User: Which sequence fits this backbone?
């Protein structure tokens, strides 16, 4: 495993790395009396619960909401014409290098037949022509050379004006080095050091940075560099992605509930855990005033809910002061807003199914759901309309209605045919549940294992030993939490694959060029 952590993104070719190996010398299943309670049924909690339940752990999965899913949650919704639809928290891209999450998804569909390619990944702007980031080679340096050759936003002038340390830092991701160099710097400061034109920054980096629910001035440059490596420079699958062909409730959460119950798990919704307290050699939880006791707990909550739970659990906080301090320092990202519009007409045929948006104050992405999933497509075919979702990842509007008004105005400027479209119905929401990754935050967040024996933490904000992002970080944390329970029970871990954990130039000696600006990679001595 150590070799996999040291491995760089190989030039010209890449492959997934085996980060955790399933030890065949250990038994697959746990002793019959092993049990666990998983709190939170988003991607992280369900990933943990599925792995544990299929290994023989008696799992109780508790979810505060009426439905599973967390930020991938979905629930029934009735339109004014009586049509039954399912609405969601917003579009999510299922990237092909989400190896852990896809492995968990194969429990409900071994062939992943419910996923289909979305197509291109255009970044659209009022000021400049759209750019599509898909179709590039997957390995460095070919992906960078192809981007340079293809992108009208990025030219030799941008590269020649860049701060060499920042440019090399982008190509040299290494957890310890990148954190030391860039964690205290904001993403905005880092991008300014890159010396790129306003067009290059907006079209190639702004939309990417905001997709992590943070503004550039509030996001650690270390996190930006890590995610740029994870999604682009160190991604063996390329930047293309898939999405479900139907709603998340139908293709994800109902099938996961059936799989869990088949393995004997108890799935309870509308069961908010009010308190966590030590109880002998285990823990006592209180979902809705009821009491449960267990030796193994996985807390798979969003950062705000986790902080609130520890604050309401003084005895647990006293037992685990490090965990209490880490939870107390967690920060929640600005609110995100999602508005789904049922329009009385279609958008222009050339519009992409999914578009990232750059340069707008509020609108960050547009998804034409009537070209993405079957229920929306059926409604559009029957009515002649379309279903369009607008997403603001870091929203400064005071409420959902104001966010909708701003996003609709910006949509009309980008896609003029929507300006006069009638809104048959809309569904809007705004909430703050995503994690923030502020400058200086590395090392302050909880890891999977804690100083509270038997308590594990899972979620897309958790400090992991391996590089991952968004849904994959959530799923990987859940599987690592499950692996910790399995290890204590003497069972083998679940295998985990990942991307190369270091950048192309990570660890190579770097010296200033003697003949002018820039840096030079020193040759290794042969011996």
Assistant:
């Amino acid at each position: 495993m150590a070799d996999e952590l040291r491995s760089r993104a190989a030039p010209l070719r890449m492959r997934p790395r085996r980060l955790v190996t399933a030890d065949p010398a250990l038994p697959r299943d746990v002793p019959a009396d092993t049990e666990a309670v998983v709190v939170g049924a988003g991607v992280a909690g369900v990933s943990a619960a599925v792995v544990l339940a299929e290994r023989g752990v008696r799992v109780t999965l508790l979810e505060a909401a009426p439905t599973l899913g967390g930020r991938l949650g979905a629930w029934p919704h009735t339109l004014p014409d009586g049509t039954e639809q399912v609405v969601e928290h917003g579009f999510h891209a299922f990237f092909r290098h989400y190896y852990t999450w896809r492995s968990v998804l194969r429990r409900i569909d071994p062939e992943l037949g419910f996923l289909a390619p979305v197509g291109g990944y255009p970044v659209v702007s009022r000021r400049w022509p759209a750019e599509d980031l898909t179709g590039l080679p997957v390995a460095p340096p070919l992906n960078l050379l192809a981007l340079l050759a293809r992108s009208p936003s990025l030219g030799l002038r941008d590269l020649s004006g860049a701060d060499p340390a920042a440019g090399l830092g982008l190509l040299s991701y290494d957890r310890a080095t990148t954190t030391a160099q860039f964690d205290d710097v904001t993403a905005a400061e880092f991008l300014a050091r890159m010396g790129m034109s306003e067009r290059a920054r907006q079209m190639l980096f702004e939309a990417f940075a905001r997709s992590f629910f943070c503004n550039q001035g509030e996001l650690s440059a270390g996190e930006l560099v890590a995610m740029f490596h994870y999604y682009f420079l160190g991604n063996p699958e390329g930047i293309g992605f898939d999405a479900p062909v139907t709603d998340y409730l139908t293709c994800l959460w109902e099938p996961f509930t059936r799989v869990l119950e088949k393995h004997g798990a108890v799935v309870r919704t509308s069961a908010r855990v009010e308190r966590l307290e030590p109880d002998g050699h285990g823990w006592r939880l209180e979902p809705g005033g009821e009491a449960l006791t267990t030796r193994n707990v996985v807390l798979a909550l969003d950062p705000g809910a986790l902080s609130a739970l520890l604050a309401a659990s003084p005895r647990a906080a006293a037992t685990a002061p490090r965990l209490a301090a880490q939870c107390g320092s967690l920060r929640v990202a600005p609110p995100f807003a999602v508005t789904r519009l049922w329009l009385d007409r279609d958008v222009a045929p050339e519009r992409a199914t999914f578009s990232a948006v750059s340069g707008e104050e509020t609108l960050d992405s547009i998804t034409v759901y009537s070209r993405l999933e079957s229920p929306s497509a059926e409604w559009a075919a029957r009515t002649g309309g379309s279903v369009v979702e607008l997403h603001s990842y870091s929203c400064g509007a005071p409420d959902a209605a104001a966010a909708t008004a701003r996003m609709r105005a910006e949509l009309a400027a980008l896609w003029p045919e929507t300006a006069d479209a009638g809104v048959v119905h809309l569904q809007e929401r705004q909430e703050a549940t995503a994690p923030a990754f502020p400058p200086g935050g590395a090392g302050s967040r909880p890891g999977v294992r804690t100083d509270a024996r038997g308590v594990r933490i899972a979620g897309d904000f958790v400090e992991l030993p391996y590089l991952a992002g968004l849904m994959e970080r959530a799923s990987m944390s859940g599987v690592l939490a499950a692996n910790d329970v399995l290890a204590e029970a003497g069972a083998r871990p679940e295998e985990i694959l990942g991307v190369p954990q270091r950048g192309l130039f990570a660890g190579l000696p770097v010296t200033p060029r003697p003949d002018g600006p820039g840096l030079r990679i020193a040759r290794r001595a042969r011996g």
